[in-house]
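Appendix B, Record 12. Input sequence as logged:
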Amino acid sequence: MTFGQTLKQLLTLSGMKSAHLADALGYDTSYISRWVNDIKLPSLKNNDDLFLKISRTIVGGSDEAAIERLCQAYGSEYAWLEETLESTLKTAYDNASKQAQGPSLSHNASLLLGGHLPDLSSVFADAIIRSAEEKGSGTVNVTVTIPLNIYSNRNMDFWRDILANPAVGGSLSITVEQVIEMSSFEANIDSYCAAIMTLLRFDKGVRYEFLLGDSAAGSGCSFISIENSLMCCVLENWLTHEDALMLCSDQGVMRQISSKLSSSLKYCQPLISYSDKNELEASHFLYDFVMSGSLRYLLTVMHPIYIDEGFLSELAARYNSELPDNEFHMYYNNLCSNTEREVILYRTALLEYIYSGRIYLFGREIQLDKADRAEHLKQLLENMRSGACTLKILNDENPLLCRKDTRLSVYLSRSTGFMASNESGWYSSFRFCSHRIVELFNTFFTHLWQLDGEYLLTGSDAEEFIRRGLMLM
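Logged structural output:
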């Protein structure tokens, strides 16, 4: 049993809170929490009697029932309980100190030099399978610190090759805890935002959790860790400008690493949270979003951009009968449809709407008939001419984010925002957890908005594109 586990057990048996122990010892509660979670060992410098202080605090603060539990658990008489607990803590600490000095060298490690790197997809797939078998579970956690500007939406063959293994793809559920260092995000806004929009719904078997790390940029090597089975560290040689990979599969080492990573990740703040569409609709979040102002949409499917209230009511009567909350969808869609905003719509999304009527309306994807979508496009043109609507049409292939990589639409305002998929089923909505993330995605939107005419139809060119679509209809 580790030192943290031993201390946690003592607190549990005695019924004592970490905060009480912290007060008695003169420490901050967060410091005790790091001991309990095996993130940090206590320092014994000028504190040789720490274990005696802990044992006395626990015994002195325990009632009769707790004392009996402690005596039974540690096979001690009450008269010797303080000494027994002190000895138990010291033994656990000594064992942890020996482990902290580093495991012995193992043959289950390899160094792969730059320029001679093999295809590692089978190695990672095997490690994921081993981890699942050892846990006896269909879920595996993978921790990644490799920056997203390197491991991005442009380099998805890594996961595709791993999921091609029939024992992995479709059989196992993988959670990737991607730790992001904020200064790296700020230096690579476009590639980070594009990667996030792709990876959140890359595959049903891979769920990404984006976490904010607190380490300084460049302070350590990047790695991929598959719990209990494999760690791959990327070692950068700044003299040769080549990367080398250090692989470790020693089970004893990996168990220690996995335990420490699991404890450390508890302190990382999420950048994005998963939300059900019904949860967004039932809460005040969507109204707060609209009221925040400066609305900006990046759309992969056509939306009800600027539909007048009377026509929206007609559409609701014809297409909205199956939805349980007509009043909410009607009110919210009317509020959104007639609010000024900046909109970027992918070219083929507009073409799909022109030719098939595919639109996201009243909380779901539907198909409007030809007469209805023609009326909507006429209203849209009128608003564009009057300046009430600013719409730009983005080519599917562009330098920042191609439509085939874009799994989500983005909805931004001045202080909040979210992403949503128009497909039913898995992982439909994602809320930004901080104002800073909203700012970074707004910067990404601005970069898309400022692309030149080779990639973006604006003003009269965008109006002419819609007019030609109406003529073809």
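DSSP finds 19 helices and 18 strands in the chain.
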